[in-house]
Amino acid sequence: MNWFKGTAIGAVGLLAAILVSGPVHATPSGISQIFAFGDSLSDPTNVKNAVGCPPGPCNPVTGRFSDGTNWVDKLGGIFGVNPTAVTEVTGPADVAQGVNFAFGGAGSGSDNGGLPILPGLQQQIGMFDTVTGSGALVAPDALFTLWIGANDYLLLGETNPANVINNIVNTISALYALGAQDFMVLNLPDLGALPLVAGDPVAQAGLTALSAAHNAALAAALPALFGTLPGANLVTVDIDAIYDDIIGNPLANGFTNTTDPCLDLGETPPVVCTTPESYLFWDDQHPTTATYNRIGQIAANALVDAGLAVPAPAGAALLMLGLAVVARRRRG
After folding, report:
1. Residue 228 and residue 234: Cα distance in Å, rounded?
2. Is the separation of the CB atoms in 186 and 145 below 8 Å?
3. Where are the beta strands (DSSP E) in 141-221?
4. pLDDT tens sequence across 53-76
C-alpha cells in the first residue's frame, strides 16, 4: 500500500545543524523527556511535514494517522511531557521534552514501505544521535518508546519475524550505547484481524501467524537482551492483549464497532463515520484516537507500576480515572 506521491524530502536534512548545549536534569514526575521511535502508529506529524499528508489515513489537521491524537500524545499528556516532532527540531530547546522520530511507513530496518526516501527505524537512530549530540541532551529519566514491526509484514514482504526482532534488539542496544536507560517496547496486535484483510481468510491466517510468531520471539528476546544491559529498565505493553480485550468485550470498553474502519476509503471523497470514538479502527490499519487513548493510559499505568514515573499534576486525575476504568472492566 503506497500512501505517498513522488515528492522530495528536505525535512530529514534539517538535522545536520543541531547544536548541543549543557546537561539536562531529571524532574519530580520521573519522566522529563520522551524519545519515541516507530512508524505511523507513533508518528506525530513527521510524514506530513516531510512530504505532505497521505490521502486518506493521515489527518490533515493533526498529521496523525488517526481521527485525532495518538498514544504518544496521551502518554506524554499524563506525565506533562510534549516531545517535539523530529521534523520540527531546530535547536537544543526543541529537545528539552524529548523528540518523536517515528515516521509513517517505517520498517524495523532501513526501509520505509510507504515511500523509500522516508526513513526506516535505523535512520531514526542516526537522527537521535544528531539531535541529542550523541546523547548529551538526554536526561537521566528520559523514556524511550519503541513500537515497530507492522510494516515489515504488511508493506515490506517480511516473512521471518527473527529478522524484525533482530532489528529491534540492535536498535535498543544502539540507543543504550547512546545513553538510553528506560525503555518501553510494544508488541503487535493480531494483524490478521485488521479490516485491511477482511474477507481474505488466507491473508488473515498468514498475518495472524506472523503476529503471533513476532510477539513470541519478542517476549523471548527482550529479557535476554536486558540481562546484558546494566542499569537499563524495560516496560512492555501488550498491544495484542489490549486489542483482544476490546474485541472480546467491546461494550465494556466503550466500543460498538471492532471490525469496520471508521474512515471509508472506498468513497470519493473518503467518508468518516459519525462516532469515531466508538470504533476500534480509524482506517483499515490504524486505531482511532479512542483506541490510542486506551493504549496510552495502559502504558502510563505500566510505568507507574514499575516505579519509573508518577503523573504530573495535570495528568494525575487522568491516570486515576484510567486506573478506575481498568479496574471496573476487570471486575466486569
Report:
1. 12
2. yes
3. 143-147, 182-186
4. 987 789 999 999 999 999 999 999
Domain spans in the chain, listed from the N-terminal domain onward: 23-331
Report how far residue 242's alpha carbon sits from residue 108's, in angstroms, rounded to the nearest whole number. Answer: 22
Is 26's pLDDT higher than 60? Answer: no
CA distance 127 to 136: 14
Strand, coil or helix: 108: coil
CA–CA separation, 273 and 282 (whole Å)? 9
The model's pTM: 0.88
CA dist 284 and 317 (Å) reads 33
CATH, range 23-331: 3.40.50.1110
- Alpha-carbon span 97 to 208, nearest angstrom: 37
For residues 11, 12, 15, 16, the Cα torsion angle rounded to the nearest 10 degrees is: -110
Helix (H) / strand (E) containing 237: strand 233-237
Query: Positive or negative CA dihedral for 28, 33, 38, 39?
Result: positive
Chain-centroid distance, C-alpha 247: 20
Longest dimension (CA), the chain: 56
Helix axes 161-177, 201-226, angle to 10 degrees: 30
